[in-house]
Automatic annotation (TrEMBL):
<dbReference type="InterPro" id="IPR009057">
    <property type="entry name" value="Homeodomain-like_sf"/>
</dbReference>
<keyword id="KW-0597">Phosphoprotein</keyword>
<dbReference type="InterPro" id="IPR002197">
    <property type="entry name" value="HTH_Fis"/>
</dbReference>
<keyword id="KW-0067">ATP-binding</keyword>
<dbReference type="GO" id="GO:0000160">
    <property type="term" value="P:phosphorelay signal transduction system"/>
</dbReference>
<feature type="domain" description="Sigma-54 factor interaction">
    <location>
        <begin position="141"/>
        <end position="370"/>
    </location>
</feature>
<dbReference type="Pfam" id="PF00072">
    <property type="entry name" value="Response_reg"/>
</dbReference>
<dbReference type="GO" id="GO:0005524">
    <property type="term" value="F:ATP binding"/>
</dbReference>
<dbReference type="Pfam" id="PF25601">
    <property type="entry name" value="AAA_lid_14"/>
</dbReference>
<dbReference type="Pfam" id="PF00158">
    <property type="entry name" value="Sigma54_activat"/>
</dbReference>
<feature type="domain" description="Response regulatory">
    <location>
        <begin position="11"/>
        <end position="126"/>
    </location>
</feature>
<dbReference type="InterPro" id="IPR027417">
    <property type="entry name" value="P-loop_NTPase"/>
</dbReference>
<dbReference type="InterPro" id="IPR001789">
    <property type="entry name" value="Sig_transdc_resp-reg_receiver"/>
</dbReference>
<dbReference type="InterPro" id="IPR025943">
    <property type="entry name" value="Sigma_54_int_dom_ATP-bd_2"/>
</dbReference>
<dbReference type="InterPro" id="IPR003593">
    <property type="entry name" value="AAA+_ATPase"/>
</dbReference>
<dbReference type="InterPro" id="IPR025662">
    <property type="entry name" value="Sigma_54_int_dom_ATP-bd_1"/>
</dbReference>
<protein>
    <submittedName>
        <fullName>Fis family transcriptional regulator</fullName>
    </submittedName>
</protein>
Length: 451
């Protein structure tokens, strides 16, 4: 099947006069698969933006010949359909950055920043503007962390050369998602992908489910049925929670994998089967082998290529990327209710441990998108009334308290910018005046008498 080799690389316009920062960011963006126009001055940036199409513009504010923010405002007046602008601002210039966002800039990051965090933001913006997708139209990226980048990069090669894959990782990290990507590369979208959760099938039924049966094979077998092995013919069989497969069944699975043939229950003929096998587990199979709970020969048979998917807490840069990813998915489905995440909330959520991994994060974002009364997802959208998510914060201080502080600071700042005027502040925040008033009351912020 076609690999995305021929896809044109999305291009970034980097406006940065500092030689060291400019060079290291250019290198990093190229490593992430972007082409880069590195402009040292506002004039160079003007030329680049006028002649080429860019996925994202990453701009410093202080430039030798102009102010990056002013340049943006000027360009916006000339050509409203600009690519998304992300500003790199000094810590003391956050107010300017907030004003630029109000004027239409997409995001900002405060110096000094972690390059991973910048890459995560840039990738999210590139995706939002529809340029980070591959030629197939399918989103094949697994995140922006080096660990997931390597897995995604190796996938086409793995799909060409291996028939079997073992994927390990905690619950919700995306094992099945990776298995589907492998399948997509190996067999294409038309071939069957059959997912079986070995832990969910009672031991007494697992053989008939996998092997199928002939009519009359046992009481209740009113007609013949193809098992999962046969259903996966020409495609991929995904055996999730393989560590839960009973030992007796492990021996039978091994035989099918070696002989590529099987007999249905109650059947007399052998049937040829041909499928790729992806096994997944959160268990330590090696330890299970040592304890005699998993067959050693099957362990070696399925463990030709092993992919370990790290938990989200070990790849924090993916957290913001996933948040944007799921918000964008919501926005595509509900364009009239488009949401965006407050940058401060992003930072707080990136620090949260996400013990349920991508699944927990996805549900938290979906819930926030649905329940939020306005377009901006602030802390309370994630850690609202019941505070389910916040309850698991690992620090000595509850996350909900921390997020409330962030929200209080942000509201205070926006109110100050609007001279305490509540209607204007509420508009800037994307919430109703009533919601702002309720938040202020909850957060202990004083309203101006005449506001
Ligand atoms: N790269 C990704 N892009 C988009 N969604 C993802 C990605 N990775 C995981 N998800 C989503 O996160 C959720 C959990 O992923 P998945 O089911 O693949 O995890 P898992 O590790 O197989 O979980 P479990 O061990 O509990 O079966 C799913 O809703 C999936 O669609």
């Amino acid at each position: 099947m076609a690999t995305p080799d021929s896809t044109p690389q999305p291009r970034i316009c980097l406006i940065e006069d500092d030689e060291i920062i400019g060079e290291s960011l250019s290198d990093r963006f190229r490593l992430e698969g972007f082409d880069v126009d590195w402009c040292r001055t506002g004039a160079e940036a003007r030329d680049a933006l006028a002649t080429r199409r860019h996925a994202v513009v990453v701009s410093d504010i202080r430039l030798p010949d102009c102010n990056g923010g002013d340049l943006f405002i000027e360009l916006l007046a000339e050509a409203p359909a600009l690519p998304p602008f992300l500003f790199m601002t000094a810590f003391g210039a956050i107010e300017r950055a907030v004003a630029l966002i109000k004027a239409g800039a997409a995001d900002y990051i405060t110096k000094p920043f972690d390059p991973d965090a910048l890459v995560a933001k840039v990738c999210a913006l590139a995706e939002r503007y529809g340029v980070a997708r591959t030629a197939s139209g399918r989103d094949e990226r697994l995140g922006v962390s080096p660990a997931m980048g390597r897995i995604a990069e190796n996938m086409p090669r793995l799909a060409r050369h291996t028939e079997s894959l073992l994927i390990t990782g905690e619950s919700g990290v995306g094992k099945e998602h990776v298995a589907r990507l492998f399948h997509y590369h190996a067999a294409g979208g038309e071939a069957p992908f059959v997912a079986v959760n070995c832990a969910a099938i009672p031991e007494s039924l697992i053989e008939s489910e996998l092997f199928g049966y002939e009519k009359g094979a046992f009481t209740g077998a009113a007609k013949a049925r193809r098992g999962y092995f046969e259903q996966a013919q020409g495609g991929t069989l995904f055996l999730d929670e393989i560590g839960d497969m009973p030992l007796s069944m492990q021996a039978k699975l091994l035989r099918v994998l070696q002989e590529h043939r099987l007999q249905r229950l109650g059947g007399e003929t052998t049937i040829a089967v041909d499928f790729r096998l992806v096994c997944a587990t959160h268990c330590d199979l090696k330890a299970m082998v040592e304890e005699g709970r998993f067959r050693e020969d099957l362990y070696y048979r399925i463990n030709v290529i092993h992919l370990r998917i790290p938990p989200l807490r070990e790849r924090k840069e993916d957290i913001v990327w996933f948040m944007q990813h799921f918000v964008e998915a919501f926005n595509r489905a509900h364009p009239e209710e488009a949401r965006r995440i407050d940058p401060r909330t992003q930072e707080a959520l990136a620090r949260y441990p996400w013990s349920g991994n991508v699944r927990e994060l996805k549900h938290a974002v979906e819930r926030a998108c649905i329940l939020s009364p306005g377009p901006v997802l602030g802390a309370d959208a994630f850690f609202g009334e019941d505070q389910d998510v916040g309850a698991e914060a690992p620090t000595s201080r509850p996350l909900a308290d921390y997020l409330m502080d962030c929200e209080r600071d942000y509201l205070r700042m926006v109110l100050e910018q609007h001279g305490g005027h509540m209607t204007h502040s509420a508009e800037a925040l994307g919430i109703t005046r009533k919601t702002l008033w309720e938040k202020m009351r909850r957060l202990g912020l004083q309203a101006r008498d005449d506001a």
